[in-house]
Amino acid sequence: MSFPIDRSSSSFPWACLLLLGLVVCSFVGCGKKAEVTDADKEAAKAEEAPKPAVQMREKVTVLDGRWMVIFTEQRKDFIVGLWDLDPKADPQVKVFEDLKILQNASILSSKIDGDQMTVELQLAGNQKALLEGKLQQGVFFGTLTTEPAGIAFVRMFPVTPEMETAKELKNSLPTIGTEQFKQASESKAPVTNMWSLATQAPQLPVSFEAMTAILAQMSQMSDMKWTAEKFADFEKDYLAMAAIWGPRMELTARVNLAMQLTIQRLFPDRAIEQFAAAEKLNPNELMAEQLKIGRRALDMVLALEAIDKEGPEAEKAAQDLKTFLAIEPYNPELLDALAEYSLKTNQNEEAIKYLSSIVALPQLEAMILSARSRQGMPAGQPGPRESLIKLWKSSHNDAIDGLDDMLQKLYDSTLESLRKDSMKLIPPVTLSAGHHVPLIESFTGVGCPPCLAASLALESLVETYPIPAIAVLHYHLNIPTPDPLTTQDGEDRFSYYKGEAAPSLFVDGRFVPGVGGILQHAAMSYARLRGEVDAALQEKAQVVVTAQAKVENGELTVSASADSQTLPEERDPLRLRVALVENTVALRAPNGLVEHHFVVRRLLGGAKGTGLKGDELKYSTSMTMADLKQGLEDGIAEIEQNRSVKFEIKPLLLEGLSVVAWVQDDSNKRVLGSVIVPVEGSGESKRRSSPAAVQKVEASAPAAAPATPVEPAAADLPKSETPKVETPKAEAPKLDSPKTETPQSETPEASPPANSNPPASSESSRE
Questions:
Q1: Which fold is adopted by the domain 438-678?
Q2: What is the per-residue pLDDT for 172?
Q3: Which residue, 695, 694, 731, 719, is CA-closest to 373?
Q4: Measured in whole angstroms, how far is the alpha carbon of residue 17 from the centre of its chain?
Q5: CB 530: neighbour CB atoms within 10 A?
Q6: What sections of 265-311 are H helices per DSSP?
Q7: In the chain, fewer beta carbons within 10 Å around the N or the C end?
Q8: How far apart are CA 153 and CA 397, in angstroms?
Q9: Distances in Å between the alpha carbon of 165 and those of 301, 361, 542?
Q10: CA dihedral defined by 305, 309, 311, 316, rounded to 10 degrees?
Q11: Three-class secondary structure of residue 529 per DSSP
C-alpha cells in the first residue's frame, strides 16, 4: 500500500538544498560593515535582493531548531512541511507547518536521543507510520514506514527560524539524480554506469534504487560478468547505502539480496547468509513470513535440480516438489517438473493431472513454452498440450471426448476458489449509510500477462463489496498487443493519469502500485487493493452524485448531476464525468481471461467531462444504440487498419449496461464522489456460452514458443494476426524464477524486497 500522498503539485529541485549550505553566508551579511559612504548603496541593494526560498543552517550537529521534512517515494520528492525540534521540550517534535502531503497526519509521539530520532505518526484511515533515522553531516537521513510493509526515504534539512513557510517550494519533480540514472540504465553498460553513479552519491535515494534495479536484473544484464568476488563488492556497496537510511532499509536490502539471489539462482551461499542476517534484524510478522517463504524457495530450487537425476535422489525430490505444490498450486515450473517426472516414470494419471492444470489455467502453458525457448530446448519437443492430448487418447479409446469440458470445469473451479481464498485474507469493513463510493479505475489489455492478477483482484473486490458500494471501470488499451475493447476515451484517460504501463490501477484518482502479476499473485494484488478501498469506504461522501439511465425503443438516455449543496468552495477545477460500461464481455483473451467486467465502452461527454455551469454540475444526453455500436465498430476498424490486424471476434453485444458518474478535482485528480447505476432496459449480461478456457483441443497445435516473450503460446491467441505487431521489449514473469504466494512488501520503486510479484520490467510498457 502506498502512502496517502497528494501528488498534485510540482517540485523544487532538491539539488539546490545540497548547495545552499555553501552560500548561506552571502545572504546573512558575513564580514565587516561597509564604509559609511557606501552604506546607503549597500542597504538599497539588500532591500532589492530577493530572499532565498530555503534559508539553511550550517554545520548543524544537534537535532534542534527548525527543519524542513522531505520524503521520497516512487522517485519523487515530497515536502511534508516544517517541524520544530527541541530535545528538552515535551513534546520534543512539533509541526510548525503542515503542507498536507501526508493526508490528515498528526504526531502521536516523538523521541530525540542524541543524533537519533523516532516519530510516530497517525495517518488517514487509522493507519500509523514510524519515522526514524539519525543526523549525519548536518542532514537527517531516515525512513518512514507503515504496516505491513510500506517504506519511503526521509530527509530533513535544518533551516533558520526566519523560514516560516515552505509553500513557495513546489512538489514534486523527480528526485535528484533520476535523469542521470535513467541515462545510465539506457547506456551500453548499464550495470557499470549505474553502479558507478551510485557509489559517487550514496546518500541519494535514487542510488539505492539503482542498485536494487541492478540486483533485480543481474542474470539479464550482459555488460557485467558476475563472479563471487565481483558480487561481494556489489553486496558491500549496497548494504553501505542501505545503512545510511537506518535499520529498516538495511533489512529491506538484505531481504532483497536473499530473495533475488534465490529467484535468479545465483550464489546460493550468499543467499543463505543474507537470509540469516535479515532474520536477526527484528523483521515484523510480514517480513518474517517472507523470509520463511524465501528459504522454502531456495529448497525448491535445489529440489528442481535434483528431480532430473536418477534413482532415490529424484524420487525424494519429486516428493519434496509435491509438498511445495500444495503450497503453490499455480507454480508452472513445479507442475511442469512433476508432469515430466510422471511421464518418465509411467505414472500416466498423475501426468494428466499436472498437464491439465498447465493447459487449462491462464498463462501457465505459455510461460513453460517461453522458458523452454529461452533455455534453448530443441524445436518440435512435445508441449504440455500435445502431451496431454496423447495421454488422454491413450486412456479414452483414442478419443478426446470430455477433455474440453474437463479443462473448462478446472478453469472455472480454480478461479472461483482463488477468488474465495483472496477474500478470506482480510475481513470487510462495515459500511455506514452515506459512505463514500470509491471509484476504482483499471487500465488493462487482453494481451497483457501481468494484468491477470489485477483483474482477478477486482473480481474478488466486487464480491466483497458488491455494486453499488463501489464503482469499477476497466479501460482497455492496445498493450502490448491490439485489443478490440480499446477506445480512444480509454487512451485519453490513460494520458490524463500520465500512465506508463499496464496494469495501472487508481482508487479515487490515486495510483495503487504493485497490483500486477500472474495467477498466483492475485491474492496479494487483492490485499493491496483492499488497503486503499477500505480506507475510502470508511469516509463520508464529500460530493453526492446521482445518475439515471435507460434504453427505450433503441434510444439510450442518460443524466447525471452533483448536489450543489455538497460541492466544495473551490469549484473551478471540478469536472463531472460519465462512463457507459458493459458489465460482462465474453472474449477469449491471450492472457487467459475469458470474461471481462465493467468494460468502459464510452465516456459520455468525452474524457474531459463537463465543467461547472453557474452553480450546477450536471450532464445529460441521448443517442441511439445503433449509433453507439457504429462508433465502436469504427474504433475497432481503426485499430485493425493502424496495427495491421484482423479481429475475427468483435465484441459488440452491448447488453447488460451500467453508468458510472463521478466528480473529480482536476487540480489534484482527487475523486470527490461517484455513483454506479444500471441502465434500465439494456438487458442482462451475457456469460460465455461455450467452454473457453482453451481453444478446442483438437484444433490446438502446440507451439514451440510464444511469438514474443510477453505473449501466450500461439495456440492461445485470439484469431487475429497479432504476432505481426511489433511488441515492446518486456518479459513475462520468468518460469525459471521460484514462484511464491508471498505478500509483496511496499518499498521505494524499483526496490521490491522478497516478493512474488514480477519485477517492474515485467509490466507491459505502453507502445
A1: Immunoglobulin-like (2.60.40)
A2: 62
A3: 731
A4: 31
A5: 24
A6: 268-279, 285-306
A7: C
A8: 65
A9: 55, 56, 29
A10: 10
A11: helix
Q: What is the pLDDT of residues 260-280, one digit of tens each?
A: 999 998 998 899 999 999 999
Q: Phi and psi for 480 in degrees, rounded to 5?
A: -90, -5
Q: Which helix (H) or strand (E) holds 579?
A: strand 574-586
Nearest partner of 334 among 759, 755, 735, judged by Cα: 735
Q: Do domains 65-174 and 308-371+384-395 have the same CATH topology?
A: no
Domain coordinates in residue numbering, the chain: 65-174, 178-305, 308-371+384-395, 438-678
**Is 70 exceeded by the pLDDT of residue 359?**
yes
Contact 143, 151 (CB under 8 A): yes
- Name residue, grid cell 452553480: 615
Rg of the chain over all Cα atoms, to the nearest angstrom: 28
Rounded to two decimals, the pTM is 0.63
Domain 65-174 has CATH 2.40.300: no
What is d(CA 666, CA 671) in angstroms, rounded to the nearest whole number?
Answer: 9
Are 99 and 79 contacting, i.e. CB atoms less than 8 angstroms apart? yes
Interatomic CA distance for residues 325 and 354, integer angstroms: 10
Q: Which CATH code is given to the segment(s) 308-371+384-395?
A: 1.25.40
Please tell me the distance from the alpha carbon of residue 259 to that of residue 269, in angstroms, as a whole number: 12
**258 pLDDT above the threshold of 70:** yes
Is 80 exceeded by the pLDDT of residue 33?
Answer: no
Full DSSP string of 456-523: HHHHHHHHHS-TTSSEEEEEE---SS--TTB-HHHHHHHHHTT--EESEEEETTEE--S----GGGHH
Q: Are 457 and 526 in contact (CB under 8 A)?
A: yes
Band the pLDDT of 557: cuts 50, 70, 90.
Answer: very high
Q: Is the pLDDT of residue 553 over 80?
A: yes
